[in-house]
Structure formats: C-alpha cells, structure tokens
Specification:
This protein is mainly beta and 128 residues long. 0% of the residues lie in helices and 70% in strands. The chain has strands at residues 2-6, 9-23, 26-39, 45-56, 61-67, 75-76, 81-90, 94-105, 111-122.
Length: 128
C-alpha cells in the first residue's frame, strides 16, 4: 500500500492485476486500484475533481481529468473516509499512476490540491 498526507487528507492506494484483454487487435493489461481518502483535518472538505497521469513501461503517458471519482463528489467531515475502486488498461505489464484531487475546504472556502502518490502497477509474471 502507498500512502501520503497532504493538508490533513490521507490518500492510501492498493493495486491489483486483473488479467489481459485483447482490444483493437492489441493485448492490454488490466489493473484495478482501490483508493481510500481519509479526512484527518479539522475541517469538512469535498472532492471536486481528479487529475491522473498514467504511465506504461515504455514511458507513454496518458492524462485523465474529470469531475469527482466514479461519479461521486464525496463530502468528508473530520475523521470520515471514502473508498472507491477503479481501473485502467496499459499496453505493457508494468506501469505507474500518480496525480491529485482538487478539493474545497468548507471552512475557508478555498480550493486545494491533494497529492495522489505514485503507485506501481505490475502483473505478477512480469517481475520474475
């Protein structure tokens, strides 16, 4: 598990390999990731958007921006957690992801970024 805290918001990520798939006459490697967002601050916050940078073993980069996470914009009071699972397809059995969440602090009404630490994606057979 990879963990990082930014401005009182703790991000933890677990990853899994889901298998291989053929798409557009090419093999793809499917990965899942489970993210837990924990509010360790004294203020209520809301996740507004996400920014991902997804890399494969050839250092090809895909950028993904969007509102919320899996269709939700969770509000977290102090001490609350939100966990969700999502996934991605890579063209290689090894890669990595990193990014940030854009959040708003309800006390100060200011937007701020929460870093999503870099986490590795690797098919078990690729490490032998």
């Amino acid at each position: 598990m990879v963990t990082q805290i930014t401005k009182g918001i703790k991000i933890s990520v677990l990853t899994g390999f889901e298998g291989t798939y053929f798409k557009n006459h090419k093999i793809h490697f499917a990965f899942s990731y489970e993210v837990t967002i924990e509010n360790q601050s004294k203020d209520s916050v809301q996740l507004k958007s996400r920014h991902w940078e997804i890399y494969d073993a050839l250092n090809n980069k895909e950028i993904v921006d969007g509102e919320g996470v899996v269709g939700k914009k969770p509000v977290l009071k102090p001490g609350e957690k939100h966990t969700y699972t999502s996934g991605c397809l890579l063209s290689s059995p090894i890669g990595a992801m990193k990014g940030f969440y854009e959040m708003v602090n309800f006390t100060s009404t200011k937007n701020f970024q929460v870093i999503i630490p870099t986490f590795k994606l690797s098919a078990p057979f690729a490490l032998n």
